[in-house]
Design a protein that fits this description.
Elements lengths: L1 H12 L2 H10 L2 H11 L4 H10 L7 H24 L11 H8 L2 H6 L3 H7 L4 H6 L3 H7 L1 H9 L7 H14 L12 H7 L2 H15 L12 H10 L5 H10 L4 H10 L10 H9 L6 H18 L23 H23 L4 H10 L2 H13 L21 H17 L11 H13 L6 H5 L12 H11 L6 H13 L5 H8 L3 H11 L5 H15 L3 H10 L3 H13 L1 H19 L4 H9 L1 H7 L1 H13 L11 H16 L3 H14 L5 H17 L7 H7 L3 H11 L29
Helix pairs in contact: 4-5, 10-12, 12-14, 12-19, 14-20, 17-20, 17-22, 20-23, 23-27, 24-28, 26-27, 27-30, 29-30, 29-32, 30-33, 31-34, 32-33, 33-36, 33-37, 36-37, 37-41
GO molecular function: phosphatase binding
GO biological process, one term: ubiquitin-dependent protein catabolic process
Protein name: Transient receptor potential cation channel subfamily C member 4 associated protein
Length: about 750
């Protein structure tokens, strides 16, 4: 027993490359003597022989023979691992795997010539992914990681290589640079469509910024500090540019995203069993392996039949091996998940305009529109495949994930881009033109310039289809948030009356109000998305306010609506901003229709009260601080600025500041609000006057020039205590605390 401990301690504490040397220094006699008692099953002796025969000039057939002896010992444990729901690997559960790693089995394999790795590393893929620390050590060898990509040209080992690369990149501390992969463009062009879809799983890791938490929850101080450190483009941005330079890459992704599932039907005993096994399968790559087996059987059983899976995606197999339709659909869904994710990331990157141009040219949007009913938003059947441990309504199921990824893509595609009109068909574009003509306003240039050959086909465009399913969505649905975000992105940017009326005519406003008031939605995320959408839908649109008043036709309903707004101003502040801006514009118009709505609309009457505007302003400033500003709540600061800019226009800025001072004293916190607001505005200057910051969003959302934004902030921050528009004029000396430096940590 003491001898076993000595051997164990020597192996355990030496570095992983010294595992090999220490193994060679232990005599064969000693290993044989301790093997039976320690229950090593001869693995150390086999590894010792494997190393001796792994040199370039040795007989490699001997290595193959040794591996054949080792493989069954490891494969049995790999099967136990899979069938026991992938419980955490422990020494006691997988003794052979543990012994293999302890005595340097991984390092013996890696030390082989790279030409031999294909035959050694890939069959042992399951071992590596299940043994703690092994994948991490492989990830440290950058040359090995890059070489693995060259093995993907071998179709026999493509799936195993792809999963091994994915595992390694998942634990690699530094992102690889795609430019370093030998002959990347040739490699990608050699993939068939199925391989390319699976390659997207790997690409997703290389083009996404390293996840250090939720983007919205990171403070802007921390983000600004990080941006100062990272002067050049990130690895992810460089990799995105590399992909866009590969000829035909985006076109092939668009074809993958829009191809249809084969309509062939029929099942077999063999594949019915596979469908039952699917309850523990959770990977498109595993499905690929099953399909390959089915296709190979079909080739053997058919005479002279040539199978192709490139564009159709699903081979026509013999009746005996025909894949169940549910599995084919799930297979295609998992492909599309990977492809849509990559396209979505590229749409949000630095080369956004280039990506937009290409995916418009390759008709991604019309293609997705044609798939909407049959695949993307298909109805679940009782026999639909679901992942192990999940159900059809689970947020993790492939069906659900595809829908969310689809909605995220629409959001990225529409956001502040003129190509958003590709979401309509020709008849719907004509409708937009008719709305503009009837209102006697100019057509939007982007509508006039939209290439009609690239818009959606059929009776309804993609936006209209989305509205239809949105209105049918159950109250508890997880899609409500993403649906609202996707539609809101269509309205973002310069306010378009025609766009608003297009959606108002389809009952969108009434649907939103039903969800907020009648169903009394409780989800904060969903409420925020509804408030943001409602703000974009109603902004400056007198018809929308008239419709609002028609739906919210009782004091009881109006009070419920106000309660929802006041329950969280962080969520509702964009709607507050919309109402404030709209009221200001309407009050400056002499139109009889506008005057009528102004006098009747509960919402406008409520916001016209000075006490209500001051209450919103006080609370908006009070709920945010420089150290807690995020991308999510910085809108509260901008909304408070909008209220004060409109006051400045009417020469009422001193009155607003004096009222804030009085409210401070009423709350028995003199100086608290104004000191905080002073710090917030100093941060605003630092954040928004950065040369890399795009200010057009502030201009477009408010119809107030950015110059006026900057001037107002400068006036408020003036150090002159005699200025009636300077914040410092309203803070008593005893409570002054405006020079505190805010930390960027």
């Amino acid at each position: 027993e003491s001898c076993d401990k000595v051997i164990f301690l020597v192996m355990k504490h030496w570095t992983h490359w010294n595992h090999i040397l220490s193994l060679l220094q232990i005599t064969e006699a000693l290993l044989k003597e301790r093997d039976k008692q320690a229950k090593w099953n001869g693995i150390p002796l086999l590894l010792q022989k494997l190393y001796e025969h792994s040199h370039p000039n040795s007989d490699f057939s001997q290595c193959q023979s040794i591996l054949k002896e080792i493989s069954p010992l490891l494969s049995m444990e790999a099967m136990v691992y899979v069938t026991e729901d992938r419980k955490a690997a422990q020494e006691s559960s997988f003794p052979n795997t543990y012994t293999f790693d302890l005595f340097g089995g991984v390092d013996v394999s890696v030390s082989f010539q790279y030409q031999k790795i294909c035959m050694i590393i890939i069959p042992l893929k399951n071992l590596f992914s299940e043994t703690e620390g092994v994948t991490r050590r492989l990830a440290e060898r950058n040359d090995f990681v890059l070489f693995l990509f060259t093995l993907m040209t071998n179709k026999k080992t493509f799936l195993q290589t792809a999963t091994l690369i994915e595992d390694i990149l998942g634990v690699k501390k530094e992102m690889i640079q795609l430019d370093d992969i030998p002959n990347l463009a040739s490699l990608v062009s050699s993939f068939d469509q199925q391989q390319l879809a699976n390659f997207c799983r790997i690409l997703a890791v290389t083009i996404s910024e390293l996840d250090t938490g939720s983007d919205d929850k990171h403070t802007l101080l921390a983000k600004n500090a990080q941006q100062k450190k990272n002067l050049g483009p990130s690895r992810a941005e460089i990799n995105q540019a590399t992909l866009l330079n590969i000829p035909g890459f985006i076109e092939r992704l668009c074809k993958l995203a829009t191809r249809k599932v084969s309509e062939t039907t029929g099942t077999s005993t063999f594949l019915q069993e596979l469908e039952e096994w699917y309850t523990w399968l959770d990977n498109a790559l595993v499905l690929d392996a099953l399909m390959r087996v089915a296709n190979e059987e079909a080739e053997q059983s058919s005479t002279g039949t040539c199978l192709s899976s490139d564009e159709s995606g699903l081979a026509n197999t013999s009746t005996r091996t025909q894949l169940p339709q549910s599995m084919k659909i799930m297979h295609e869904i998992m492909y599309k998940l990977e492809v849509l994710y990559v396209l979505c990331v590229l749409l949000m990157g630095r080369q956004r305009n280039q990506v937009h141009k290409m995916i418009a040219e390759f008709r991604l949007i019309p293609g997705l529109n044609n798939l909407f009913d049959k695949l993307i938003w298909r109805k679940h059947s009782a026999s639909a495949l679901v992942l192990h441990g999940h159900n059809q309504n689970c947020d993790c199921s492939p069906d659900i994930t595809l829908k969310i990824q689809f909605l995220r893509l629409l959001q990225s595609f529409s956001d502040h881009h003129e190509n958003k009109y590709l979401l309509l068909n020709s008849q719907e574009l004509n409708e937009l033109s008719a709305i503009s003509h009837k209102a006697n306003i100019p057509e939007v240039d982007a509508v006039v310039n939209t290439d009609r050959s690239l818009v959606c086909d059929g009776k309804r465009g993609l936006l209209t289809r989305l509205l239809q399913v949105m209105k049918k969505e159950p109250a508890e649905s997880s899609f409500r948030f993403w649906q609202a975000r996707a539609v809101e992105s269509f309205l973002r940017g310069t306010t378009s009356y025609a766009d608003q009326m297009f959606l108002l005519k389809r009952g969108l406003l009434e649907h939103i109000l039903y969800c907020i008031v009648d169903s009394e939605c409780k989800s904060r995320d969903v409420l925020q998305s509804y408030f943001d959408l409602l703000g974009e839908l109603m902004k400056f649109n007198i018809d929308a306010f008239k419709r609002f008043n028609k739906y919210i036709n009782t004091d009881e309903k109006f009070q419920i609506f106000l309660n929802q707004i006041n329950s969280s101003l962080v969520d509702s502040n964009m709607l507050v901003r919309c109402i404030t801006l709209s009221l200001d514009r309407f009050e400056n118009q002499s139109d009889a229709k506008v005057a009528e709505v102004l006098s009747e609309c509960r919402l406008l009457s409520y916001m016209s009260q000075m006490s209500m505007r001051m209450s919103f302003l006080f609370r908006l400033i009070n709920i945010i601080h420089v150290q807690t500003l995020t991308q999510e709540n910085v809108s509260c600061l901008n909304t408070s600025l909008v209220i004060l800019m409109l006051a400045r226009r009417k020469e009422k800025l001193p009155f607003y500041l004096r009222t804030l001072q009085q409210m401070e004293y009423t709350e028995k916190y003199p100086g608290f609000i104004l000191n905080n607001f002073h710090s917030l505005l100093r941060f605003w200057q630092q954040h928004y006057l950065n040369k890399d910051k795009d200010s057009t969003c502030l201009e477009n959302s408010s119809c107030i020039s950015f110059t006026y934004w900057k001037e107002t902030v400068s006036i408020l921050l003036s150090p002159d205590r005699t200025s009636p528009c300077a914040i410092v004029s309203y803070i008593d000396e005893a409570y002054m605390d405006i020079d505190r430096d805010f930390s960027e940590e």
